[in-house]
Amino acid sequence: MKRGMQWLGLGWLLAMASLLSGCGYNDMQAADEQVKSAWSEVLNQYQRRADLVPQLVKVADAYMTHEREVLVQVSEARGKVGSMQISADKLDDPAAVAQFQQAQGQLSSALSRLMVVVERYPELKADRIFRDLHVQLEGTENRIAVARGRYVKSVEAYNVLVRQFPGVITAKVMGYEPKANFGVENEAAISTAPDINFSNSQPAR
After folding, report:
1. Which of 13, 40, 43, 77 has the least C-beta neighbours within 10 A?
2. pLDDT tens per residue across span 20-50
3. How far is CA 48 from its chain centroid?
4. Cα–Cα distances in angstroms (integers) from residue 75 to residues 68, 80, 81, in the given order
5. pLDDT band at residue 164, thresholds of 50, 70 and 90?
6. Which domains does the chain have, with CATH numbers?
């Protein structure tokens, strides 16, 4: 009798595993992990950029005698970014993701304004340390664009699974919610890094 109950229990587990697999549970698990991985890379690249900002501001501050408010704007935007971190568990909150995106967008705009002002300071443009930091920033912006693009695609794939039948039933039962994506107004920025290049740059001395 005991052995029969064990076989019955095993059969029930196998049936449940087959049912969950057929309803897309395994696919949702894999897609959810892919979203988390993609988001982690987005955060890593944004953090890389945030770490460069204080160094850029410090070097620029030594040269800029006017329009110093742009340095304040960059520093304030960087500080706001630091207070707007979102873990992968919060990606089903569209408001939180929108606030994160807005903070990062403000930093992007502030950095773009800084680069415009830098054009008026040839000595700063020629400073070797600043130019090295600029190259790092430019590369980071490109990596951010790539990471954002991968995140967008991962979220789209995941959301299809949890919204379409029969996956929507499994998602309801297992508590899977759609993930928030980057706003439509910023879709172009996902594949194109902000323009932070110097025009008519001089070689470093």
Report:
1. 13
2. 445 568 888 899 999 999 999 999 999 999 9
3. 11
4. 11, 9, 10
5. confident
6. 42-191 (1.20.1440.20)
Can you read off the two tokens belonging to residue 156?
């789209």
Alpha carbons 107 and 105: distance in angstroms, whole number: 5
Note whether 118 and 124 are within 8 A (CB): yes
* Closest among 57, 163, 170 to 117, alpha carbons compared: 57
Average pLDDT across the chain, whole number: 82
Q: Name residue, tokens 């697999």.
A: 21
Which tokens go with 63? 């040269």
Q: What is the pTM of this model?
A: 0.78
Separation between Cα atoms, residue 203 and residue 186, nearest integer Å: 34
**How far apart, in whole angstroms, are the C-alpha atoms of residue 108 and residue 111?**
5
Lookup: tokens for 19: 């049912």
